[in-house]
Specification:
The complex is a heterodimer of chains A (349) and B (248). Chain A is mainly alpha-helical and 349 residues long. Chain A has 15 helices and 2 strands. Chain B has 9 helices and 10 strands. Classes of the chains: A mainly alpha (349), B alpha/beta (248). At the A-B interface, helix 8, helix 9 and helix 10 of A face helix 2 and helix 4 of B.
């Protein structure tokens, strides 16, 4: 089997599994939704962290921003947002089928746009920072905004916000959100695959390897960095919007801006799978999610210990990750040459 | 239009208490090869860094094609066509040679959407020709970080040519390159100058190289301009011999 046929078979089987598994294992649809979200997390984190060498600990901010933007639009289009989120109000709010899906579509678009705008503005502030300073700076953004949103009464403050109920069967709802997350994960993958194959991929790799050199060669480094972050923000914003509806409820600290769980998982999944590779984040995310859920089920009370152990082992002993390890062992599978060839330019057609 | 492409007038730069460059004035002739020599710590690299905008200068002016660039940032200066290579070679270590070359295309007119354009064949062909020119064609698929130091220097030179600069400033191009390769490098520098019309401005410690290469030489010592002139004048200048060349 040649390479393109193998690639095609791989993609086809992933697509088929993504469609068949939820039908045969309906009890795990929620789990699988979160798993595809993890894939989006890892893929978007790797744009900066792996391909560009900027380790952001604040990407989770865009997840929360998308969730809130979409939630506010979905409710605000039809009801008074302040009354809706008033804890003492106790009102009942129904959304018709048309209202629900109009709100959802507009909400997703707004979530994506808002996150891109935030990325461009915040990028001006944080891209002057390098290395650990960038990591801490971005972490601060996510943490501070989570705290600020906790005091914002319009969106329910620390109590958070309940989302409109799905206008139909709840069993059906979970398949709807699964499909959305699955499509988002596939789209994110296809987008970054194309991105890394374009000049953009070369330029952000150059920034990773030696940013000063890249500047010295006239590359518009700030432009590339900002756009890279905006791309990550775009997909994370939509992921947040879907997750808010999937979860039916969100609040600032643990659901929307969870810097200590999802925010760290992003990094860990990429490290586990192999940063700076196309498939590493995908493999890392799926493996991590399975490990996490298995330990949650069978090692309850010890799950954080198991997770901590995984973090320590990955960071200390296995920084190259699964794909990095395979690439080192079998470079020829990836078209990486370790020996020069003897062919002369004149011999070529 | 002046016959000089770089004109520096009374440039000074100090770091804390150290005066790295004091009142330096020099001119680089368009289309020529100008040399810059001087003992270690005489301020040659500081001067290069000032020209390409790596740090702000304290006083003085730097004209490039008649335009004052002393307040410009690094990328802007590079996009004007004034490029430098580093004393400590800098290449993109995890990318292969072809990729190193592809990303070094000129960014002068790059618009927003050019970021997403595909890696076209003509660029790859040009990259291959230039790698052939510096003698790295056989190594083109190797990761740049796996090349030897000398090969990395050649790659950096090829990347600079890929950028189609008007002026190329080279910081010790032959340092760390073995003696047999040095002749080849001198030849290629001369060809880059003649065939591609690139003005060269070269820092060099190897006297044989610089005397062979340059048509005009400046000599710095203790951050100040000590002497200037044609290679033979510099070679026989008593001040240069005392400060730098030493008595034979």
């Amino acid at each position: 089997m040649n390479k393109s046929a193998a690639t095609f078979a791989l993609y086809a089987s992933i697509l088929a599994l993504g469609i068949i598994l939820p039908i045969y294992f309906p009890n795990y649809v929620g789990q699988m939704t979160v798993m595809w979200m993890m894939v989006v997390f890892a893929l978007t984190w790797d744009i900066l962290g792996g391909q560009m060498g900027y380790n952001s600990l604040g990407n989770i901010f865009f997840f929360g921003a998308g969730m809130y933007a979409s939630g506010m639009v979905q409710v605000g289009m039809f009801y008074d947002l302040a009354k809706y989120n008033d804890a003492a109000g106790g009102g009942i709010y129904n959304f018709s089928f048309a209202q629900y899906f109009t709100g959802l579509s507009v909400g997703f678009v707004v979530a994506a746009i808002v996150c891109v705008i935030f990325a461009v503005i915040l990028g001006r502030l944080v891209f002057g920072l390098r290395g650990p300073y960038f990591a801490i700076g971005t972490l601060a953004i996510a943490t501070v905004i989570g705290e600020l949103v906790s005091t914002w009464e319009l969106v329910g403050g620390g109590q958070g916000m309940s989302m409109p109920n799905y206008p139909g069967d709840l069993g059906e709802a979970k398949f709807v959100f699964y499909t959305m997350m699955f499509v988002l994960a596939i789209s994110t993958f296809m987008f970054v695959r194309w991105l890394y194959g374009s000049r953009f991929g070369l330029a952000i790799n150059a920034i990773r390897d030696d940013e000063q050199k890249a500047e010295g060669m006239g590359i518009h480094t700030l432009r590339y960095k900002t756009v890279a972050w905006a791309i990550a923000a775009f997909f994370l914003g939509i992921a947040g919007a879907i997750y808010g509806n999937f979860n039916n409820f969100f609040e600032p600290i643990d659901v929307a801006f969870p810097t200590t769980t999802f925010g760290i998982f992003m990094v860990l999944m990429v490290l586990l799978g192999g940063k700076g590779t196309l498939w590493g984040p995908v493999i890392g995310a799926i493996l991590f999610h399975v490990i996490k859920e298995v330990t949650w089920t069978y090692l309850l009370n010890l799950q954080w210990v198991a997770l901590g152990l995984l973090i320590v082992v990955t960071v200390v002993y296995f920084q190259e990750g699964i794909m990095g390890w395979i690439m080192r062992k079998k470079p020829e599978w990836f078209g990486i040459r370790v020996e020069g060839d003897k062919q002369r330019l004149g011999d070529m057609k | 239009m002046s016959e000089y492409i770089i004109e520096i007038d009374s440039l000074s730069k100090s770091y804390g208490g150290v005066i790295a460059n004091k009142d330096i004035s020099l001119k680089v002739k368009k289309g020529g090869i100008t040399g810059l020599i001087g003992p270690n710590g005489s301020g040659k690299t500081t001067l290069f860094n000032s020209i390409v905008g790596y740090h702000p200068v304290d006083s003085g002016s730097i004209l490039f094609s008649g335009q004052d660039i002393s307040k410009f940032r690094v990328q802007e200066i590079a996009r004007l066509g004034l490029l430098r290579t580093f004393q400590q070679t800098r290449i993109y270590a995890k990318m292969n040679c072809i990729e190193n070359m592809q990303v070094s295309i000129p960014h002068r007119k790059a618009g927003f959407w050019d970021m997403f354009s595909s890696r076209d064949e003509t660029t790859i062909e040009r990259a291959e020709r230039l790698l052939e020119f510096v003698g790295l064609y056989e190594k083109r698929w190797l990761r740049a970080g796996d090349l030897s130091f000398g090969q990395q220097k050649l790659l950096e030179f090829a990347m600079a040519l890929m950028n189609e600069p008007t002026v190329l400033m080279l910081d010790e191009p032959t340092a760390g390159i073995n003696p047999t390769l040095i002749n080849g490098l001198i030849d290629r520098l001369k060809r880059a100058n003649e065939e591609f019309g690139i003005t060269l401005f070269v820092i060099e410690h190897n006297m044989r190289v610089i005397m062979n290469l340059a048509d005009h030489i400046y000599c710095l010592a203790h951050g100040q301009m000590l002497a200037e002139g044609k290679p033979e004048e510099i070679q026989n200048d008593q001040r240069v011999i005392d400060a730098y060349l030493g008595a034979h």
